[in-house]
Design goal:
Elements lengths: L1 H16 L10 E10 L2 E2 L2 E5 L1 H4 L9 H22 L16 E5 L4 E3 L21 H6 L3 H8 L1 E8 L10 E4 L32 E7 L7 H24 L10 H7 L37 E3 L15 E3 L2 H4 L9 H10 L8 E2 L2 E2 L5 H4 L1 H7 L18 E8 L2 E7 L8 E5 L7 E5 L3 E2 L2 H4 L7 E7 H6 L14 E8 L22 E4 L3 H7 L20 H8 L7 E3 L2 E2 L4
Parallel strand pairs: 1-4, 1-5, 1-6, 6-8
Antiparallel strand pairs: 2-3, 7-8, 9-10, 11-12, 13-14, 14-18, 15-16, 15-19, 17-18, 19-20, 20-21, 21-22
């Protein structure tokens, strides 16, 4: 057993000391644009308007005082975040102390001596307050020029959580560059917010942090910890999002169940890992870094963490002194957050799971869009942004002679899932769901990451017999109906259907004009007896499936692919 533990530790540090021949230029720059809303008191323009921003907590504070303290706080947070990206920096045996990211302010702070603009939108849990109007605030700064042309990735808005204003902690706008991976209809948002469509959309993705300076006079250290707290929740959301996109040989709960480990409210037998934003690894108390329990000693696998939860990972007994130093001075979690970040798999981490190397997770923050396009989730991929087409892909080949055929794949997954809806993407209108499994030719496999089992072929009768649509006669009303063939993105949060062109199969939607069941009975099946009361779904003589199957043979009924009539079918 001792030999195994020695070998694991040896591999861990051997990988840490191995350097790349072509090393990245470090640190990687992460530009932060800072906006401050500092409303003046009408009766004394030199004072902050405490009625708007914090009541007695900040009453009497001058505008200059708040500006000065915010300048100091901004710098300390930027330094703390940067230090947090140096992998295992706190370990003496690891001598590479280089920060992977340098968080730095872009340009001068933009200051408005006015109240923060409010929107008409309330958070779901409190209708008495409003969110700031982020679209107005950011368009005022020409945000897409900052993001797309000047490399800004983060925006800090300093305002207040007071009165009728409740800001979001973090908020993301996923860019059009990664529209194939949006997790909402028409936009994408991976953040610690209600994920509403409340930010301007640019080509590249960016994240907005809305901090509050209400306590900057009375509780400065609280403010410092609270500011990084917001970043921590954003890290959790991004890491969890990519975790869902791991290769098929790797679980998609590496971050929460393995790296973070046992925590408050989790009743499973998870090991104590590195903890999370609210829970250090030595306590199960919520906000444990503020609790006397932060002094508790606990054995954890965090210090020498290796993915997979191997029993032979060396355990280290720790308490708050490992991150805060002797006496564990109270800082509202600031030093714990920096220590937690230094345990995140960073630059040259050397970690491997099931033969697949773990990527530098900080790349997901500095290069979110390209990391998403490259694939691999929390793990490395040999694929490059220029050479990979990782969007779901597919096409309808034909609907004729009773046949529905085509192919579909998602290069990120072994199996794609195709869903067919009538008229609109709604579960009540879902006709059928299936997984392509028919072998296809090289040309198709090349578009599917080498997956040859990407084809599907059904005769119309069998296709409809698999349907879970309760009222199949919905199709037979004499009106045009669209059949929407779309892929389900199993990697996206909550596995949503993404209703836009990148996820429709080529040549979808299909527009089909069916006559009524009464017309079909007369024209196709020569039924004349009591057709007004004929039950096409249940009668043994002829079924609705038979009727639809015949439609594929009868060339009198039009079928249009996409927006172009295809008269050959």
């Amino acid at each position: 057993m001792k030999l195994i533990k020695f070998f694991i530790v040896f591999l861990f540090f051997f990988n840490l000391f191995v350097t790349k021949v072509f090393a990245e230029t470090l640190p990687v720059q992460k530009k932060v644009y800072v906006i401050e809303y500092l409303p003046r008191l009408s009766s004394d323009q030199s004072l902050i308007d405490h009625n708007l921003v914090g009541g007695d907590h900040i009453k009497g504070a001058t505008i200059d005082f708040v500006k000065t303290k915010l300048d100091i706080l901004n710098n300390e947070v930027l330094v703390g975040l940067s230090n947090g990206t140096s992998y295992k920096k706190y370990l003496d045996e690891y001598t590479n102390k280089t920060n992977y990211i340098n968080f730095s302010q872009y340009g001068e702070t933009k200051i408005y001596y006015e109240s923060i603009p409010a929107s008409n939108v309330s958070p779901p849990w409190n209708s008495d307050v409003k969110r700031p109007d982020y679209i107005y605030i950011l368009n005022r700064e020409n945000i897409c020029d900052l993001v797309d042309n000047n490399g800004v990735q983060d925006v800090w808005i300093w305002g207040y959580h007071w009165g009728n204003i409740e800001p979001t902690e973090s908020n993301m706008s996923m860019g059009t560059k990664v529209s194939a991976y949006w997790n909402r209809s028409g936009y994408g948002d991976i953040s610690n917010s209600e994920k509403s469509n409340d930010l301007p959309q640019c080509v590249n993705s960016y994240t907005v942090y809305n901090f509050s300076y209400t306590w900057i006079r009375d509780a400065y250290n609280y403010m410092k910890g609270n500011t990084v707290h917001d970043y921590m929740h954003q890290f959790e959301n991004v890491f969890d999002f990519f975790d869902k996109k791991n290769p098929n040989t790797i679980p998609n709960d590496i971050f929460w169940s393995d790296f973070s480990g046992r925590r408050y409210g989790v009743t499973s037998n998870l090991s104590f890992g590195c903890g999370d934003t609210h829970h250090p690894p030595n306590t199960l108390i919520d906000y444990g870094y503020n609790s006397p329990e932060r002094f508790n000693y606990q054995s954890t696998n965090c210090v020498y963490w290796w993915p997979g939860g191997y029993a032979d990972i060396p355990q280290v007994t720790i308490n708050c002194e490992i991150w805060s130093g002797t006496g564990c001075p109270h800082d509202n979690g600031f030093t714990y957050f920096v220590w937690w970040m230094q345990n995140v798999p960073g630059y040259q981490n050397g970690l491997v799971y099931n033969g697949v190397s773990m990527r530098n997770w900080w790349e997901l923050l500095t290069n979110f869009d390209n990391s998403l396009l490259e694939g691999g989730g929390l793990f490395k991929t040999d694929c490059t942004t220029d050479s990979c087409n990782l969007k779901p892909n597919g096409s309808l080949d034909e609907i004729k002679v009773g046949l529905v055929a085509g192919w579909a794949c998602d290069p990120n997954l072994v199996n794609a899932t195709v869903q067919v809806f009538v008229d609109n993407i709604d579960n009540s209108k879902k006709l059928v769901e299936f997984t392509p499994a028919v072998l296809r030719e090289d040309a198709v496999a090349n578009q599917c990451g080498g997956n040859y089992k990407s084809g599907f072929s059904f005769n119309m009768k069998d296709f409809l017999s698999k349907s879970n649509l309760s009222n199949k006669s919905l199709l037979l009303d004499g009106q045009e109906h669209k059949l929407l063939f779309v892929q389900k993105d199993l990697n996206a949060l909550s596995n949503p259907i993404i209703p836009f062109s990148n996820y429709y199969l080529d040549r979808s939607p299909v527009t089909i004009s069916f006559p009524t069941t009464k017309e079909l009975a007369v024209e196709v099946f020569n039924l004349t007896e009591d057709i007004d009361s004929f039950d096409f779904n249940n009668d043994s003589k002829v079924s609705l499936l038979d009727i639809i199957y015949r439609l594929g043979i009868d060339d009198r009924y039009s079928i249009k692919f996409g927006h172009k009539m295809d008269n050959t079918l």
